[in-house]
Write a structure and sequence with these properties.
Layout (H helix, E strand, L loop, with lengths): L1 E4 L13 E9 L10 E10 L4 H4 L35 H14 L12 H10 L5 H14 L3 H5 L3 H8 L5 H18 L8 H4 L7 H12 L9 H9 L8 H8 L8 H14 L25
Antiparallel strand pairs: 1-3, 2-3
């Protein structure tokens, strides 16, 4: 609202679009009984919003200020598209990645040596924060002394700790192994459960361990194993941008065909150990080099 004051002249053409507001700034002290008298009348006029067009000039757009649309950004020097998030998980690109992994590792499988589902469960619990090579060295003698769930469940904890000490975190792993073994003996008739829900009730068993047992021992694709290698490679390949293993698994499951869930994890683990290593990736030897545009890429 624009307000201004002036002396109104009779017949002023603007009077039609002006509203009059009277302010009693100089009202006569004495009033008659019939009507008030004014010694001075100050009239304030204000333009209503509908009359703004009469007194305001519309600004013209400066044609030079209108900028043309910028062309889409080109890929960065490492080949990574900067603006398109879906590029990493594009179905064609995912199929190309799977084809290259099948070409390089057609028979990839779990590296933990085991003879039955229970041994695989124990070996997977031991593999937390430990290499598979070390676990296989420990289980070579461990499984000769402890053959059944009952042997682990009711063993002397100190004896078991001494056997697995070199795997690290031996006290907590002993509790997990004995707790899981007791539950298998007492609630599952000595048999390793075959469902995710039941496996997660065992002490020391989370989704990674359950996925390993279900996928490798029973061939059940309940999810995708996310260990340190899968976590690193799935981010380098731009299949996820999460760092939490649970969120990474949720990102991978919709884009990887279910019949590939088991072998896909094994292939990434093999590729992470042999080629796409954490500190010094051997990109020149990688058959995914043309597809990969990771910032860690070394050429």
């Amino acid at each position: 609202m624009i307000q201004f004051s002036f002396s109104a002249q009779p017949g002023d053409p603007l009077q039609k679009c002006l509203r009059t507001k009277r302010t009693d700034t100089a009202i006569a002290r004495k009033r008659s009984a019939s009507s008030p008298t004014f010694s001075h009348l100050h009239v304030c006029y204000s333009l209503p919003s509908s009359a703004h067009k009469l007194v305001t000039m519309k600004k013209l757009k400066n044609p030079r200020s209108v900028t043309a649309k910028k062309p889409p950004r080109a890929a960065s020097r490492n080949g990574r598209p900067r603006s398109v998030r879906a590029a990493g998980t594009d179905p064609k690109r995912v199929r190309a990645i799977l084809a290259k992994l099948d070409e390089a590792y057609p028979s990839a499988t779990c590296a933990l040596v085991h003879e039955n589902p229970f041994q695989l469960l124990i070996a997977t619990i031991l593999s937390a924060q430990c290499t598979d090579v070390r676990v296989n060295q420990v289980t070579r003698t461990l499984f000769q002394k402890y053959r059944k769930p009952e042997d682990f469940a009711y063993a002397n904890p100190r004896d078991l700790e001494a056997e697995i000490r070199t795997c690290g975190f031996f006290r907590s792993k002993t509790k997990s192994i004995q707790g899981a073994s007791k539950k298998i003996v007492e609630e599952f008739s000595g048999q390793v459960p075959r469902t995710m829900e039941q496996l997660l009730t065992l002490p020391g068993v989370a989704r990674k361990t359950a996925n390993v047992v279900l996928g490798t021992a029973f061939g059940i694709p309940s999810g995708i194993v996310v260990d340190t290698h899968v976590q690193r490679l799935s981010r380098r390949l731009d299949l996820t941008r999460n760092t939490d293993p649970k969120k990474i698994e949720q990102d991978l499951m919709p884009i990887i065909p279910k019949d590939k869930w088991i072998i896909f994890a094994h292939q990434l683990i093999w590729h992470g150990r042999r080629i796409c290593q954490a500190r010094k990736p051997r990109c020149m030897e990688c058959n995914l080099e043309k597809i990969c545009y990771s910032e860690d890429k070394v050429i």
